[in-house]
Amino acid sequence: MAEESSDGAEAIVRSYCAAAQNQADSSRASTMEVEIQGALPKLSKTGKLRALRRISRLGRITYEVLGFEGDGTVKRDLIARYLAAEMGVQQDREAAMAVTPDHYRFHFKGRSELDGRGVYRFQVTPKRKAEGLFKGDLWIDAATYLKVRESGYLVKNPSLFVKRVAFTRKYEIRDGQAVPLRMESVVDTRLVGRAELTIDYSNYALDEDETDVVDDAR
User: Fold this and answer.
1) What does residue 144 show for φ and ψ, rounded to 5 degrees?
2) What CA–CA distance (Å, rounded) separates 152 from 137?
3) Which structural domain, as residue segments, surrounds residue 184?
4) What is the pTM of this model?
5) What is the pLDDT of residues 155-168, one digit of tens each?
6) What's the domain count of the chain?
7) Distance between CA atoms of 165 and 211, rounded to whole angstroms?
8) For residue 97, which of 3, 54, 63, 132 is within the disulfide window of CB 3.0 to 4.6 Å?
9) Are 118 and 143 a contacting pair, CB within 8 Å?
10) For 47-76, what is each residue's pLDDT tens digit?
11) Structural domain includes residue 186
């Protein structure tokens, strides 16, 4: 794996930040379908929810639930909690969580391939212990400088009942945007043991109708 000079690594990070800012500046309302699979292995309970995920031009996220099958405990205590948390993220908080040098230290790990694309891999460490920040790895597409993968664990647990949250988020490049493709998360809880959440995103489309639909999935 070839080494990159410190100046070269800094240039990659600057290009990545510029690409992310350009995506934010040019963001448009969009929709995509999601399939959320949840599992509580210790309780032998599973569930699957289908929904339409909308993002307004201002970044507001809402969900329209299309269907659910499985155990109600998974729906109520795992999937619905995730949806509520994501819809509760405001723009100012999202900016405070952005993976940029303002909030993270970047350590270049090398250039490699991911799903057939050339990528730059960085280890990222938050500069403070705050909710929503993580320690782990960031993969940056070598052609567009957009993120294509993030993985790691949250440095601050969202609840006293949670011991650790680890995740992997995958993105695809669509029309100059880094669009969610898949998210896998494992939460170690104090009450029910391991909780697993897998989200698959599909059928991304620009949406000219910005009417927000709220469904609390209860």
Assistant:
1) -110, -15
2) 6
3) 6-206
4) 0.86
5) 998 777 788 999 99
6) 1
7) 33
8) 132
9) yes
10) 999 999 998 887 788 999 999 999 999 999
11) yes
